[in-house]
Every structure is written in C-alpha cells, then in structure tokens.
Design a protein that fits this description.
about 25% strand; single chain; 4 helices; two-stranded antiparallel sheet; Nuclear Transport Factor 2, Chain: A; alpha+beta
C-alpha cells in the first residue's frame, strides 16, 4: 500500500512511513475502497433514475398523441353525423310532400292532401330547372344550392298531367345530395348491377349500394317508383372519371325490386339529369 502523505510504498504492517515519517493509519485504504464502492451504486442509481425519467416522458408523449388522435377521429365522426343529419333534413322536407301525394287525382286534390300550393306551368325560380325538365306543376324549396356551378332549388317536386287532367307522374329531386359534387359519391369501381337483386326491398337495396337517392320518380301508369343514385369511379384504362346513374325500380304492389339498370352520364348535357331518357320528366 502507499503512504497517504507522500505516496511512497509502505509495508502492510508498517506503523510509520520510511520516507516522510508519517503515521500509517490501519484500514485507511479499505475505507477508501469502501467509499468507492458506495459511490458506484449512487452513480448507477442516478443513471437509472435518468433512464426512468426518459421512459416516463416517452409514455406521457405517447399518451398525449393517442388522445389527440382520438379527439381528431371523434371530431371527424361528429362532422360526418352532422352533415348526414343536415342532408337527411333537406331531403325530408320535400319527401314528406312527395309521400303524401295521391296520384291519379287532379292538382287541387293533391294540393289539399299535401297542404302545398303547386305552381302551374314551367315557372320555377331557377332557369336551369325550367330548361331541362318537362312538368306541368311545381313545388320547390325556398332555399337554393349550386350543383356543378348551376343554381337550383335544394329540392323540387314536379308533377305531370295525363290527358284527363289527373296527375299520373311525380318526381322528387333532392339536389342538396349533389351539392358537394355533381358526380355523386366516389366509388372504388363500377357498381355491379347484380348487387341489387330482384325481389329485394328498397331499404336493403339502398344499404347494399351505400348511397342516397337524389331523385325518385313515381309513375301511376307503371305502378312503380324509380330511385336514382349517382356515383363516380376512375376508369383504370383511361384514368378518367366515369359518372354513373344507378336506377332501382320498385313495384308499388309489393314494395320489392322489379328492375335494376345503370347508365353513364355525359358531363355537358346531363349534369342535373335524374332519368334514363336523357331528360327529366
């Protein structure tokens, strides 16, 4: 071992240092070793404490990020619900009038049953509707919306008269459905018409399509209601959008699907068209 005063080498049993004469205190070296050993755990403890603090901070950040993500998801869901509720409310107003309408009667009887006044002739406040639709009487929303840059009523009920003064066809348009995109909902691909089966109920057909109708045509001569759904998809070969109207014909007799067909729409001529004959009824 060494002298604590001069650092010279001394024997283990020496009482005094042979170089400087300092007294050798037994056990001093062991105490220093003991102190070193005691210091090491303290250093390790500090290191472990720092590591635990970092891990705790990381967990807190992860928890905060998870809460922020959950809040964003909830906000998106709430927004979707609000938009869906607004769209449903817009549709409900015109749909109530449409559903109370007794076909095969004159317009005075229909006005009395629905509580609504129908305008005679093509006198819509919106020129686009007068231009593209054939009708004899009209009831339309007081509020307007834009579809593909064209101003139209949020909803409209159009009536067509037979040769005997009775209403034989009624059409409900909910243009608010197309407010955000005249091409309708985005689909990953073209919807197979076989997805809606003969004899299926209207609600089940709508559930399978995952779409809302923006037009319904009630025809007393055919005893049918034709629901029109609009969507678009991207053609893989050309990379162009294909805009489709999907038609589901429901029988008035049993309320079941009688026919299903679709057609591709032309952007220039059929932005607001809801029927398969190239023109509104």
């Amino acid at each position: 071992m060494r002298c604590k005063e001069c650092g010279s080498e001394v024997a283990e049993n020496d009482v005094f240092c042979g170089s400087c004469g300092a007294e050798i205190i037994p056990g001093a070296a062991e105490e220093r070793k003991s102190d070193t050993v005691r210091e090491e755990p303290d250093k390790n403890k500090k290191k472990n404490s720092g590591k635990k603090k970092k891990e705790s901070s990381g967990r807190k950040k992860a928890a905060i990020a998870a809460r922020v993500f959950a809040a964003i998801v909830i906000a998106v869901i709430i927004t979707f619900i609000i938009v869906y509720a607004v769209m449903s409310a817009k549709a409900a107003e015109g749909r109530k009038i449409f559903d109370k309408m007794p076909l095969g009667r004159d317009v005075e009887k229909i006005s009395a049953d629905t509580g609504e006044q129908f305008i005679t002739g093509k006198n819509s406040l919106y020129g686009a509707l007068n231009y593209i639709a054939d009708y004899d009487y009209l009831c339309e929303s007081e509020k307007s919306t834009a579809v593909g840059g064209v101003m139209v009523p949020e909803w409209a009920v159009l009536l067509s008269e037979d040769g005997f003064g009775n209403i034989d066809k009624a059409t409900l348009y909910n243009f608010y459905i197309l407010k955000h995109n005249w091409m309708g909902e985005k689909s990953a691909e073209r919807i197979d018409i076989s997805s809606v089966e003969f004899g299926m109920k209207a609600k089940e057909a709508e559930r399978r399509l995952g779409l809302k109708p923006y037009a319904i045509v009630k025809d007393s001569a055919e005893n049918t209601e034709t629901y029109t759904y609009r969507y678009h998809y991207t053609d893989e070969d050309s990379g162009n959008n294909r805009v489709m109207n999907f038609y589901v014909v429901i029988s008035d007799v049993d309320g079941q699907v009688k026919n299903v067909y679709d057609e591709q729409l032309d952007y220039l001529n059929l932005i607001l068209n809801g029927t398969s004959n190239g023109k509104m009824p």
